[in-house]
Amino acid sequence: MSVKAQIRQFIAENFLFNPLSSNGAGFDLSDDASFLDEGVVDSTGTLELVMFVEDTFGIEVIDHEIEPENFDSVNKLADYIARKSNVAAS
C-alpha cells in the first residue's frame, strides 16, 4: 500500500464520520485539501497523526516539525514522510 493510501486510510478510519463517497471509492477529500481548514483534524488530531507517522513509518518527529507545512494534507504529510525517510536512509 502506498504512503498516500495509508494516510488516507488512517484519516478515514480515525477522523471522518462518512469515510466513503457515494460510489464507495473512498472519502472525497483531495490530497491537497487542508485537514485544518476542512475541519478533519484539530490540534489533538495532529498529535494522533504524529503518533501514526512514528509508529507506521518508524520516523522520529521532532517537535518543531509539527507544523501545517508538514501535517496539513495528504500530500504534505506524504512529502514529509518521504523527506524524513530519505534522511533516515542516508
Q: H/E element string? A: HHHH
Number of structurally distinct domains: 1
Q: What global shape is seen?
A: globular
Low-confidence stretches: 21-26
Say how many strands there are.
Answer: 0
CATH homology group:
ACP-like
Structural class: mainly alpha
Number of helices: 4
Overall average pLDDT: 86
Largest sheet: none
The helix fraction, in percent, is 40-55%
CATH class: Mainly Alpha
* Alpha-carbon distance between the two ends: 23 Å
Rounded to an integer in angstroms, the radius of gyration calculated over CA atoms is 13 Å
| % residues in beta strands | under 5%
| CATH third-level topology | Non-ribosomal Peptide Synthetase Peptidyl Carrier Protein, Chain A
Q: What is the architecture at the second tier of CATH?
A: Orthogonal Bundle
How would the blueprint of this fold be written?
Blueprint (H helix, E strand, L loop, with lengths): L2 H12 L28 H15 L10 H4 L2 H16 L1
Helix pairs in contact: 1-4
Task: Tag the structure with descriptive keywords.
single chain, 90 residues, mainly alpha, 0% strand, globular
Structure explained in plain terms:
By secondary structure, the chain is mostly helical. It has one domain: Non-ribosomal Peptide Synthetase Peptidyl Carrier Protein, Chain A (Orthogonal Bundle). The protein is 52% helix and 0% strand. The chain is built from four helices and no strands. The chain has helices spanning 3-14, 43-57, 68-71, 74-89. α1 crosses α4 (74-89). The longest helix has 16 residues, at 74-89. The two termini are 23 Å apart.
